[in-house]
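Attaching the record inline, Q. Sequence:
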Amino acid sequence: MSLRIGEFEFGDGASLAPMAGVTNPPFRQLCAESGAMFSVTELISCHAVLFFSRRPRNRDRKRGQKTLALLDRYPGERPFVVQLYGKEPELMAEAAMVVEQEGADIIDLNFGCPARKVIRAGEGCGVALMRHPPLIGDIARRVVDAVKVPVTAKTRLGYSIDQRNGVEVAKILEGSGVQAVTIHARTREQGHSGPVHLDDLAAIVEAVRIPVIGNGGITCAADARRMREATGCAGVAVGQGAKGNPWIFSEIAGGSGAPDLAGRVATCRRHLALFVAWAGEPLAVVEMRKHACWYLKGFDGAAAFRKRLGEAVDLAAFTGLLDTIPLS
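Structure, as predicted:
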């Protein structure tokens, strides 16, 4: 099955899955340059969107500016895919209309996030909604009817090993007008670790006619190929495996993988520069510490370098620390 969403048709590569605190414009740009078919924003609460949309003056308040930053895009980003989460159908529909007005080309609905603050003891949003399939259908239907752009969704196999209802939910989403689904082939209990259940993913692919994108456990091209061959999914999405490794998208598409240490340092420097240009020096320096840890491993003194990242209090200190890495 080819992967087509609305007017957008994609090849045999991989997309970048949404990750809170990671998939902001600078990182999405680096992944796109490395061959990602498309990227998805960090998940955004419908309530946060409505905070600034219902009262325009809230756009200038800290909370409003924080949400609007999540709706930023890198230059030329298209399709611009925005992921929303929430559990009130009418609020999700209203937020989707706002996001469409803000320039979204595709709206993705999150029914798969396992984070505690999202699922709230199993009665909140994200993957908790898989315990209430009719509500998922209502949310999806209301959003599809409210906007003109394509709507997609992300789910998991189920809330727990004993509550695997991925097939049922995928059928409901298809019937609600969703144009594609991304399935993380694990349950809420597994989070982002443990084996992916390819048989369950294959059953979902077989059960629906809309494209299914497989997700979970992809750290190299071989993982992506195995998932596609075992399940027949129309595409794959990479999340955790892209941290510190935007080159995984090139590798999956048949190109080169991660470069040598000098290349990784150069990419870290560019990522830092893009981050500073987008968010300003103070925030960029703090947020780039974790990215530097992900980029820079496996060389003599790497552990000591990562320990010293706390000393990177400004751009000059950060770049000076990068200068200490032995490249020869």
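The chain has a mean pLDDT of 94. The first strand starts at residue 3 and ends at 5.

More tomorrow.
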